[in-house]
């Protein structure tokens, strides 16, 4: 017989609470008789009066009404559009507080989801200057009173708010996007209007090579043509000589997905270059490239250290993107095999290997969970397996193959501690032991948390 529980709070009720924790999206968590209430902008240890705004069977949402005791880590968020934007969730928490919160997040999920009580978890490696770090800006374009707006969607809506400066964005991208907006306005380019599925310009993306200074600009349009294309390009290139590639991506669909299937080069090269450490990379418009170049080096150095290569090992790099980690590893390995699902990224990866004179790498296009089991059947064995999956983590059949293959070490790079913990549990049950976990702060001011773990076959 199931017992129906009545939530201990009611809608519109005002109550006093003490916050204990943060959710994975940065809201404060308070509990009433074990029943959790989520409140945006609240921090652990804070005492507050809140108003209940939504009640569900197992949890509720509240709004901060009055803070009675503030967290010692609370600070004034420096960004003027912080509350409307939603791109950052932690600007009201000092950077020291953010690093502590992320370390706690990793510890909690390792215990709760992974059942890993005794694993060594290091403090988060943070940034000296945790601002202006993003090398990629991707902004929706709208129109208002005859002009264009470029910025962000107001939280929970598709209303575009204009933003001239994003505090986590590398300044060069902000400056370029403001200029592109003015140039497009001058030549009468219309913004895409979602409700009517009319107009031209949907998004503008700028990607900056931190070391080379090269910039790629991408226009995402609903239409095949970008009106006054040549004049627009000429003005951009005259004002910004470091723009080395201008690309148009055509997305004709009614969709929230940003990119369409067709990409054409309007000016310059199909890629820009950047360097991480001693390795040079060509990056094309649709390829994944880490957004925080300073911390990427920290992360990859740690992955390389955990791989503990002597020069004799065969290594598989699953989810390899444009071969960034693969080429880092190839400096110290006998042979590296990279696998990635996006064909353009694998073309970039091959070009990158040639660019750096590396001949001990081989890349394959496909799902890691299909390609690697096939390699295993063909007799390929890795001494070290590196995985860097998207947020949903590794597919079960890939984990099963890793368990069968029994590499000496697995280096797991993760952008989602919850799926990392889940997958570590599966690998531990299959005969591996997690030796240590190093969280690296790739995304200051946000709740996103990256970590690299090393496991050994026991
Ligand atoms: C977090 S990124 C890591 C990329 C690369 N290791 C890096 O650091 O730049 C994850 C990559 O996995 C790719 N991917 C997603 N699902 C995949 C799958 N099932 N098999 C192989 N690659 C996949 C994505 O296209 C993306 O390039």
From TrEMBL:
Keyword RNA-binding found: no
Catalytic residue list: 415
Domain TRAM, chain residue ranges per copy: 6-66
One of the GO biological process terms: methylation
Catalytic EC class: transferase
Tagged with keyword rRNA-binding: no
Protein name: 23S rRNA (Uracil(1939)-C(5))-methyltransferase RlmD
Organism: Ectobacillus antri
């Amino acid at each position: 017989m199931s017992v129906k529980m009545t939530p201990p709070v009611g809608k519109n009720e005002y109550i006093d609470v003490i916050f204990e924790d943060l959710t994975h999206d940065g809201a404060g968590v308070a509990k009433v008789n074990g029943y959790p209430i989520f409140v945006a902008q609240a921090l652990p240890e804070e005492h507050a009066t809140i108003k209940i705004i939504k009640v569900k069977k197992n949890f509720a949402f509240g709004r901060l009404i009055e803070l009675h005791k503030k967290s010692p880590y609370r600070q004034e968020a420096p960004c003027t559009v912080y509350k409307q934007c939603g791109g950052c969730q932690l600007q009201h928490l000092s950077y020291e507080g953010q690093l502590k919160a992320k370390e706690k997040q990793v510890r909690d999920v390792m215990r709760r989801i992974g059942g890993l009580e005794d694993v060594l978890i290091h403090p988060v490696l943070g940034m000296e200057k945790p601002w202006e770090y993003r090398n990629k800006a991707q902004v929706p374009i709208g129109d208002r009173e005859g002009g264009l707006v470029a910025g962000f969607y107001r939280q929970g809506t598709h209303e575009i708010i204009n933003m001239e400066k994003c505090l986590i964005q590398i300044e060069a991208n902000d400056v370029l996007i403001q200029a592109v907006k003015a140039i497009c306005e001058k030549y009468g380019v219309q913004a895409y209007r979602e409700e009517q599925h009319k107009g031209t310009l949907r998004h503008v993306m700028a990607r900056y090579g931190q070391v080379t200074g090269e910039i790629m600009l991408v226009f995402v349009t609903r239409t095949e043509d970008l009106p006054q294309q040549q004049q627009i390009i000429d003005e951009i290139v005259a004002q910004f000589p470091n723009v080395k590639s201008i690309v148009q991506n055509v997305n004709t669909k009614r969709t929230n997905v940003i990119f369409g299937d067709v990409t054409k080069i309007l000016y310059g090269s199909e890629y820009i270059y950047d360097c991480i450490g001693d390795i040079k990379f060509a990056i094309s418009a649709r390829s994944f490239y880490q957004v925080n170049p300073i911390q990427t080096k920290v992360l990859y150095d740690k992955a390389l250290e955990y791989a503990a290569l002597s020069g004799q090992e065969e290594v598989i790099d699953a989810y390899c993107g444009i071969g960034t980690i693969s080429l880092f590893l190839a400096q110290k390995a006998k042979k590296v095999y990279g696998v990635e699902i996006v064909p353009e990224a694998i073309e970039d990866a091959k070009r990158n290997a040639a660019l750096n004179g590396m001949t001990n790498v081989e890349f394959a296009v496909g799902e890691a969970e299909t390609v690697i089991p096939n390699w295993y059947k063909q007799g390929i064995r890795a001494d070290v397996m590196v995985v860097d999956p998207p947020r949903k983590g590794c597919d079960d059949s890939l984990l099963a193959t890793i368990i069968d293959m029994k590499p000496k070490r697995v280096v797991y790079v993760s952008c989602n501690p919850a799926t990392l913990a889940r997958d570590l549990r599966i690998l531990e049950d299959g005969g591996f032991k997690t030796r240590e976990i190093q969280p690296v702060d790739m995304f200051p001011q946000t709740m996103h948390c990256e970590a690299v773990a090393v496991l050994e076959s026991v």
